[in-house]
Design a protein that fits this description.
Largest sheet: none
Number of helices: 12
Strand content: under 5%
Length: 206
């Protein structure tokens, strides 16, 4: 049985194991006992680090989202970069996150369907609104200045996440549907298509 001798290392291990279990089984189906068993510790040790499963979920969700959302905000705010370059950098940030956490898109859909209020509460607790607000305001400012076409932000949301997440959601289907097809090679071809669709949606035509 592990102890808290290297407390920071153990905390990181707990979060990583909880992340894998939440992604594999979903929040509702994962118990604190599951997390303790996966980590090789007892429940009192686990509760020393995280008193409730909600606190654990916040730590897990934060470890994922805060690894790339600030980066996405910084890219969007780099208004001196051409639109296609910014779009490509944002796609790459999401791609790497989904490669590192391939079940994350399905996990997010499952949690949105299961309890959107819980997910929104976690977003509030993690103070993610500050990033989402800056991203939204930056897009609105560019639309108001005529640098981007004025479209509802929900259209941007649907277009981007639909095009980026769907390949990962259907990843296991690809080899059966189209044999001898590499996911990585396919996404490399898909990437400029995503940028084209965002450009068609947002970029004023000459």
């Amino acid at each position: 049985m592990k102890t808290s001798h290297n407390s920071k290392d153990l905390e990181k291990e707990i979060i990583e194991n909880a992340k894998q279990l939440f992604i594999e089984k979903g929040f509702a189906e994962t118990s604190m006992s599951d997390i303790a068993a996966r980590t090789g510790i007892n429940r009192p040790v686990l509760h020393y680090y995280f008193r409730t499963k909600d606190k654990m979920f916040q730590a897990v969700f934060g470890s994922i989202v805060l690894s790339f959302v600030p980066q996405v905000q910084d890219i969007i705010l780099q208004k001196d970069l051409p639109f296609r370059e910014r779009a490509g950098k944002i796609i790459d940030a999401y791609y790497q996150t989904f490669i590192d956490n391939p079940c994350l898109p399905m996990f997010m859909i499952r949690e949105i369907y299961r309890d959107p209020g819980h997910l929104l509460a976690v977003i509030h607790e993690l103070q993610l609104e500050q990033y989402l607000h800056k991203i939204s305001e930056s897009l609105r400012e560019e639309m108001a200045a005529g640098l981007l076409k004025t479209v509802p932000l929900v259209f941007v949301f649907y277009t981007f996440y639909g095009l980026v997440a769907m390949p990962f959601l259907s990843r296991d289907l690809l080899p059966a549907a189209i044999p001898d097809t590499s996911f990585e090679a396919t996404f490399a071809l898909w990437r400029p298509h995503i940028i084209d669709q965002l450009e068609n949606l947002l970029y004023p035509q000459a």
